[in-house]
Structures are given as structure tokens and as C-alpha cells.
Amino acid sequence: MMIVMQKKYTKSAVRSRKEISHDRIVEVAARAIRRSGYDGTGVADIMKEAGLTHGGFYAHFASRDALLVEAGDRACADSVALASRVVAAAPPGQALQAIMQAYLSPEHIGAIETGCPVSALGSEMPRQSPEVRHAATLHIKEMIDLIARQLPDWGKQQTHEQAMALLCALIGTTMIARAVDDPALSEALRAATMKQFTPAAE
Fold it and tell me: Are 194 and 100 in contact (CB under 8 A)?
């Protein structure tokens, strides 16, 4: 005899409307800060884009900074997850090259709203609250570790330093490639960094 067990829906199994709304606000804010910068991102605009009233903001967050922290965490988590998927999908021995190609791709350089939050917001981060900066710091450390694990001599001090240098090059190149108004120069910057760091990926 087959016994069918009734599924009990608990608070943890079923997300409340408030949790869904909270998640939507954070998702919208994570895109908005990359698109418009920290200072260019207003609470009213975020709530409107999320399809919620401005007055409901403080039911979810104690302050605008609290939202920025969560939005930064979300953007960072998305970026690290994407890099991890790139690594997992790469052929053996090609993970580092795949990370470089993905990060310096024309698609990533053109997608400031959905790309790496550090390359989108790096110049603004020093002026943010300690909590916002801490979220970015955790992301940077995760990316350094992810890159270091793809290097042949992973675990050695020089490998960690190589990973830091490569991440700085990727972020800096992306920031400058986005800043210039000359598409040919933007492409040349991208190609130059790929050329200089390709030996490390081999």
C-alpha cells in the first residue's frame, strides 16, 4: 500500500509577500547602483521601479545605507556566482583564460548594470559607509581566491599575488574601457590586457 504524505508548508517553505517584495527591492537596487552609482540611486526611484510605494521602504530597511549594503551583497554574489559558472564550464586548464575572456568581453564592458559591481562602482566605494565597503571587500577577496585557484601553483604566496594583480588589471581595464568615448581605444585596452596576462593563464 502506498502512503501519500501530506506536505506541510511552514514559514520557511513558503515565502511571504514581504519577503518577495524585499527581494525585489534588493534586486532592483543591485542593478540601480551599478547603473547610476551610489549617489545617483534614490529610494523613491528604486521603490517605483520595484512596483512598490515609497512609504513602504522603512518596513524593509532601517536606512538607505542598509539597502545599499544588501544591494552590494546581491550584486557581488551574482558576480562571483557568474565567475564560478564560467570556471565550471571551462575545459580543463582553460578556466583562467575563460574568466579573462568573460570579464573583458565587449558584453561585460557594455553591461554596467548587470556586471561586476567593483568595476562599476570602484571609484565611489572609498566614500561609502564602512558596511558598504565591507561588502565590496568580501567580494574582492572571493574573486582573488577564485582566480588564485585556477593558477598552476595555487597555494603559494606568489600565486596569490598574481591573482591580485590580474584582478586589478581586469577591473582597471574595464573601468577605463567604459570611460573612454573611443570604441577603438576601448577595444585596444581590452586586447592589451588579454595579451599581457595570457601567459599567466597558460
Answer: yes
